[in-house]
Amino acid sequence: MTRILALAGGVGGAKLAYGLAARLDPAALTIVVNTGDDFDHLGLRICPDLDTVAYTLAGLNDRERGWGLDGESWTFLAALERLGGETWFGLGDGDLAMHVLRTCRLRTERLSKVISDLFARLGVAHRVVPMSDDPVRTMVLTDEGLLAFQNYFVRRHCAPSLRAVRFEGIEAAAASPEFIEALEGPELEAIVICPSNPILSIAPILGLPGIGERLRARRVPVVAVSPFVGGAALKGPAARNLRDLGFEPTAEGLLRYYAPLIDGLVVDRSDAPGEALDIPVFATDILIPDPVAQARLAGEVLAFTGRLRADRS
After folding, report:
1. Strands 188-193 and 3-8
2. Hey, how many other C-beta atoms are within 10 angstroms of the C-beta on 38?
3. Does residue 76 have a pLDDT over 70?
4. Please, which residues have CB within 8 angstroms of residue 219's CB and are 6 or more apart in sequence?
5. How confident is the model at residue 51 (pLDDT cuts 50, 70, 90)?
6. CA-based nearest residue to 139, from 207, 82, 229
7. What is the pLDDT of residue 1?
8. What per-residue confidence (pLDDT) applies to 108?
9. How many Å from the N-terminal Cα to the C-terminal Cα in the chain?
10. 310: closest CA among 261, 263, 273?
């Protein structure tokens, strides 16, 4: 049985995670999710990337918005607005239940344990784990000053230009035990970096103390899937973020950003490099708007990792 560790965050990461889950048995897949986006709002612990992955795997996600629950209602938010509360961050009525229960349980339990129980109740069979049980907070240095991630991403709609990204607390944070268990498991055959924002979703995971070294030490193929089509991000600021930090949203740019960690790269056909790169590149259709396309891409990614393993043997 193929054992895969996937690193994910955001809508693109959730889509490929769904495809991988459609292809792999629950025992064969662990999805490690960025928690740098987590923050406290109205007294509640909000974990946007974790919830997006879980709702997508459970088939409960709103495909039009890309986040939150399908068929959501907004009575709470309307009442909050009448009372003069902050409404810039959308909290749907159904989604609110997740935040309330998680916040209550985090007083005495680890985040990994809490989400394992809550996600199982949603019908998520595959293992979804946070990158860390310790708080790590993404802070964005922009041309307008230092902003907390959600202020930059949601409140300001990514309008300010990026200058640098900081992950507060990461030096003292430990990778979650479930993350380490999956990474060090003897059956692990490949690591897939999902088509998530490399800077805002994947960098916090790779930035945890010792994780980059552990990934390289495993000597299993590490494959990154591009979040770009035609040099543009399908959703979110990933392309602009890369450019702001001196990288291009191309196969060459991604290789330069992820080097020397990755052993293979999956890109859209429109972004296939004009000349050979230093690592194998597989070009395909990475536009995955529906579950069928997500499973198709996941199958291609798994086949690519299999070829890389075979070339090493």
Report:
1. parallel
2. 21
3. yes
4. 312
5. very high
6. 207
7. 53
8. 98
9. 18
10. 263
List Cα–Cα distances, 166 to 37, 137, 191, in angstroms: 12, 8, 25
The encoded tokens of residue 70 equal 């399908």
pTM attached to this predicted model: 0.96
Phi then psi for residue 31, to 5 deg, are -110, 115
- pLDDT recorded at residue 21: 98
Concatenated DSSP letters for 204-237? HHHTSTTHHHHHHHH-S-EEEE--EETTEESSSS
Report CA-CA distances (Å) from 201 to 5, 36, 94. 16, 8, 25
3-state DSSP: the chain helix, strand, coil percent, rounded to 5? Answer: 45, 20, 35
Sign of the CA dihedral 90, 93, 95, 96? positive
**Beta 39-41 vs 44-46: how paired, if at all?**
antiparallel
Sketch the domain layout of the chain as residue ranges: 3-312
- At the fourth CATH level, the homologous superfamily of domain 3-312 is CofD-like domains (3.40.50.10680)
Residue 29: pLDDT band with limits 50, 70, 90: very high
